[in-house]
Design goal:
mainly alpha, two-stranded antiparallel ribbon, 8 strands, about 50% helix
Amino acid sequence: MGTISKTYSLLPVTDKLDFDKSRHLLQRCLFGPKKSEIDALVGQSVSSALSTLMALPATTNQPVSMDARDLAVGLGQTWVSVPYNSTYNPYRINSLHAWWIGNMVMQPATIFEKMVLFWHNHFVTEISVVNNAHYTYQYIQLLRNYTLGNIKKMVYDMTVNPAMLTYLNGNANVVGTPNENYGRELLELFTIGKGPLIASGNYTNYTESDIREAAKVLTGWTINATTLAGVYNTSRHDKTTKTFSSAFSNQTISNKEVDEYKLLVDMIFSNKETARYLVRKIYRWLMYYTIDQDVEDQIIEPLATTLFVNNYEIKPVLVQLLGSDHFFSQDFRGAYIKNPLEFSVEIFRKCEIPMSTDPMANYGIWTYIFNSAVNMEMTLGDPPDVAGWPQYYKAPLFNELWVNSSTVPNRTTFSNVMSSGGVTLNGFKYVIDPFLLIPKINNPGDPVALISALAQILLPVSISSAKQSALKEILIPGLPDTSWTFEWIKYTGNPADVTQKNLIRIKLLAVIATMLRMPEYYLS
């Protein structure tokens, strides 16, 4: 992946976007940019492109039943508004998985879906633990409501969200026997972070006593299973005055009943360390995993200031980072390894695999993508624990952990299936059709131009001339360039010739399948 250049400037890029810059920007912001999406940004200013990327998508359809065994709703009808039913809950969880994947596959050209997944990895709940499709759907909607909005307000709502109350035992947190789970993770993982250890159990940014006091603040919340809302019960709330450590300037929070938890959140967010912690996680998600002292001083600190002075609105931070010289530094392109969802969803988007007109077939292929990502060690909705996927925090390897002796064969199997026989559901075949990419290529009868164009479409970075030559050898092994030109002219002269078209298809798919196995495709 090369040595990262010493370009530490957050000054905005003033040049117009060329193809490579547009591709890099969209590669980091989408689950795989289509060529048409890249081309649409070429020639635009970075600020104009970011304005488009920060747009909120239209209202998303609700998940629908995909299993006839859910007798409470018909196939294709949403289950969101019907009561929870433990018998049907597994089918609705499967539907939720598919719906979430579908949002990624069908996403518009905005950063929205990529950031929904970021916040899920940050404010972790696990579907398998919560075990309530209705709670988890509401949790996902909470993420979506605030994805490009205000982080502090998101924490307000997350604190009393039924899925989070269930996952971290907030609904069991009562006066006299406070449960510290959410209070601990609120400080350690969701907001301010630990900072250096200064004594047993005590960190620079908070202490064990702060966790205990936070737990008291958070007592009193239960769940109304009918309204799917967190409900405050005054008899369960600790009404004493809570005193925090010098890490929070020895602030106190007195009894404020239903609004007391917001005072705790306000106190945490008034400390700029919270902004620094959040910015580091955003940086590792969108940019690169290594944060050395230069990055800390020249990138993280000014971004944290931007977040802090904008009262934790996230858009100004994203615009500042993604529009900067630092972001567009050449050596950051293709600098980290795609996660399994990026890897698999990108194949569908970059290769523009069509969707069926049958919603049930589409839910089936989205389930296939979900299960394939599970085999690649990323289960959407179920990170390994409350800290999220270790590929985003576990030094020193970080995202290199995605690649191992188990995941690489499973990635290869997925790409091979989609570039060969595909997956047939309800009579519809989901498979890469190279003829859908050909119209995006100038002069496809020239094998050099063809290989170069396919590499631009499928890969995030340029490849060497030696690799281009190797790909051409797959297309026309041992033959002169004119042999491909002849075959192409023969096809275009009579597109109804099924035999010739299949010959062309087989050759093109062999090249595409090889590209999808190349190390460059694994990168973003």
